[in-house]
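sorry to bug you again but im stuck and you know this stuff better than me. theres a chain ive been looking at and ive put its sequence and its fold in token form underneath. id like you to explain what the token line says about the fold, in plain words if possible. anything you notice is useful, everything is just below.
___
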Amino acid sequence: MQNALQTGPSPTSAPSPKTAAWLSVVPGLGQLYNRRYIKGGILLLLALSLAASLGPWTAGGLQGLVTLGEDPNVDDSRTLLTEGILAALLSVVLLCAYGLNIRDAWRDAVRRREGERIPSVRQAFHDSYDKGFPYFVVVPSFILLAMVVIFPLLFMVALAFTNYSLYNSPPAKLLDWVGWANFKELFVNPLWTQSLLSVLSWTVVWTLVATTLQIALAMLLAVLVNDSRIRFKKLIRTVLILPWAVPSFMTVLVFAAMFNDTFGAINTQLLAPFGIQIPWLTDAGWARTAIILIQVWLGFPYVFTLFTGVLQSISKDWYEAADVDGGSRWQKFRFITLPHVLFATAPLLIMQYSFNFNNFNLIFLFNKGGPPVPGQSAGATDILISWVYNLTFTDNNYKMAAAISIIMGIVVAAFALYQFRRTRSFREEGY
């Protein structure tokens, strides 16, 4: 009677999950042990093929990543670094697949021991397609992301720990791993320390002042145009949006000519009658002022459009109720208009700050980060992104440019994480 009531194999005859897992050290053997012959054969054949075709290349790539070459007449450290990073990424993918192979053998053994029916290959294929369809869709995008984003990022991080510069550049010379020496140089060498502190402080000031001014101007204009006493609203809004419609690089080039110290229209036409001559491009303070004014001009139309849409969606009943309670214009703006506008546009306003933090086009097109500052490797209006560009393409100082890029990425990531953690959607996920 007891044997008749058993629904599965006895514990002594059932496969051992530990044995299946240990056999899966050679992919496919654990599946063969679980009597998944077709699946085990495919995995074993695939593992042998990958080991024969990609094994030597992966091992050579990882070795080149460690040594970065031994003979400059034969090896190019940049090529070895590239192949090494690709080999490391491929190794991570293969290790994940290897772990899934062991986990699959373990689970099949557990299911057989518990008396569950093991699906056929065809049924397993259909089940995996139904349950894993999102993964089939995500994998191609993930591969593209790895090649377009992750690989360049890893390459840049690797350069920050080498001695790649104008005076130590392949293929004439080989690169060497220098550890944290480049980061130490940034905070020990007075030239680099002063330049980093100056550029970082100006980047923060530039981001906060320029973005806050453009948001304030957009708010002021949006509230004024939305007033019921204003006529020709469509015409006024169209005119205010025009700076956004013109390509920004053209606008910056025009302003660069207008702010020119010698022949610019601002000095020769607007200020000359008053006997005023301002060194817009040669004085650090005036150059920074000009750049902030230009960014306010370029940035306020987009924010104005956002605010205008939100203002039109606010119910008039709120304002009528405030009139009944005797609320002033300032109180209606403070307690009705401003909260509604900021609540609806807060994520986009945060993006404005992030955009201006890395606003390379304006700095480069206006004066390429100038004027120069004695005792520094950066110009007076250089922000972090433009400084990195000059170090890379002008000075060929790749190692320091990579180190500064890492610091810049950490700052931006910390700011973004802080802002996301304050959002309601992030808190609702339970993080």
